[in-house]
Design a protein that fits this description.
single chain
């Protein structure tokens, strides 16, 4: 057991069984609070403030959203290094440094005198995001969680799902009182005061050495009944296997469809005749659906196979996206569709978080998950533009949603090709 890798010897950890229950609960609590804060300050704060930024500066909304997209692309690229770093040394230093880096990035955004300074600030935030949001937290929980990793992941994503509920209204209230620049300044202070000490003091546990032999990312064979046999070492890295490539492509297509739908839900519903307030209510209740989906994930996972659950969830995304476009403009019906779509999005977050471990084991999770996440982050960054472009080209948001449903359906088809390397349920 290796001592001193970004960690202090606190709370016993074993390579295959994770932390003891008490320190694991501490880590889950720390990451739950840091994720709700990081998502709220670094992601949803922008969604609440972008209109005010445009009105105050005269910059186009396309240019403003472009800066945010740059941050997401950088997060994906830098995330590749972050994943390797966490695999080798643990999450403590990289997550603390990333949380600290968010402060100057947000300060640059708040003080930006020109659009170029605004872009620079979001570039810095993008680097910070790579080490603060779900991917590094999932890596920590996958290793430290051991057999309890699904429960730990579910708890943290439930907290992350509340970020928009807490921070979007907070950012809007700060904007109304003091303006968007002060709002970003306050959010920067909140992020620094909460996440930096949480990561430094709450992630001090021992990080196991890299798994050797069969644990080092080797696929684990699965019987037809779903029970794992002894692992089989292969010379080819999982990242070079056909199932891994198919999984990466599927995740990218799903991210493209999901984030294009989320960002363009309100204009699509307004096109159907709903007023802005009702459309926003439908969107908000979709967030509640996400929480419900995550609460039910453990039972869903127990009743499905590794690859089967991915196919089912992504197919449901496709069907419900089309349902949004084809449903009658009745508020109750649209709320039901929106909450159902939110529910499957909530399930998909955990399907994605566990996809590497379920197929190839927990070793090298950080690096492998970063490889899967990077193109999906780029797709999610492009998604808002894609949704608007599709609506313009296809003649309506409803037609655009049908195209996005087809994209998600292609993702579901690709999910069927990830069955070649079955799960490790250890």
């Amino acid at each position: 057991m290796t001592v001193g890798r970004d960690a202090l010897p606190s709370g016993g950890v074993q390579a295959h069984h994770g932390l003891d229950p008490v320190p694991l609960r501490q880590v889950v609590g720390v990451l739950s609070l840091s994720q709700i804060t990081s998502w709220g300050c670094l992601y949803y704060g922008f969604a609440a403030l972008q209109a005010s930024i445009g009105a105050d500066t005269g910059w186009s909304l396309a240019a403003i959203t472009g800066a945010f997209s740059v941050s997401q692309v950088l997060a994906g690229v830098v995330g590749l290094w972050v994943g390797r770093r966490i695999d080798a040394r643990g999450p403590r230093v990289v997550m603390t440094a990333s949380a600290a880096l968010a402060l100057p990035g947000m300060a640059l955004v708040a003080l930006a005198p020109t659009l170029w300074w605004f872009y620079l600030g979001w570039a810095v935030i993008g680097v910070a995001v790579a080490g603060t949001l779900y991917p590094p937290a999932f890596a920590a929980l996958t290793i430290w969680g051991g057999a309890s990793r699904v429960r730990a992941l579910t708890t943290v994503t439930l907290a992350g799902g509340l970020a928009s509920t807490v921070f979007a209204p907070l950012a809007a209230a700060l904007d109304t009182t003091w303006g968007w620049r002060a709002a970003f300044g306050v959010l920067a202070g909140v992020a620094a005061l909460v996440t930096v000490p949480l990561h430094w003091w709450g992630l001090r546990h021992q990080w196991p050495a890299r798994h050797a032999g069969a644990g080092a990312g080797a696929p684990v064979a699965e019987t037809t009944e779903g029970e794992s046999r002894l692992p089989r070492i292969e010379a080819v890295s999982p990242a070079r296997s056909r199932p891994f490539v198919a999984l990466g492509l599927a995740n990218t297509l799903v991210a493209l469809a999901v984030y294009a739908v989320v960002v363009n839900t309100v204009p699509m519903l307004r096109e159907q005749g709903l007023d802005t307030q009702t459309a926003a209510l439908v969107l908000g209740l979709g967030g509640l659906g996400q929480v419900l989906g995550r609460l039910g994930y453990a039972r869903f996972a127990a009743a499905t196979s590794v690859s089967g659950r991915g196919v089912l969830v992504v197919a449901a995304v496709a069907v419900l996206t089309a349902g949004f476009a084809l449903a009658p403009p009745v508020t109750g019906v649209l709320i039901a569709v929106g909450m159902s779509l939110g529910l499957v999005r909530g399930l998909y977050t955990l399907v994605q978080a566990t996809s590497v471990t379920d197929r190839w084991g927990p070793a090298s999770y950080g690096h492998l998950n970063a490889l899967l996440t990077a193109p999906a982050l780029a797709a999610s960054a492009a998604a808002p533009f894609l949704g608007a472009v599709l609506a313009d080209a296809a003649g309506s948001y409803g037609n655009a949603f049908l195209i996005l449903a087809a994209i998600a359906a292609l993702g579901a088809a690709l999910m069927t090709a990830t069955t070649g390397r079955p799960a490790n349920r250890s």
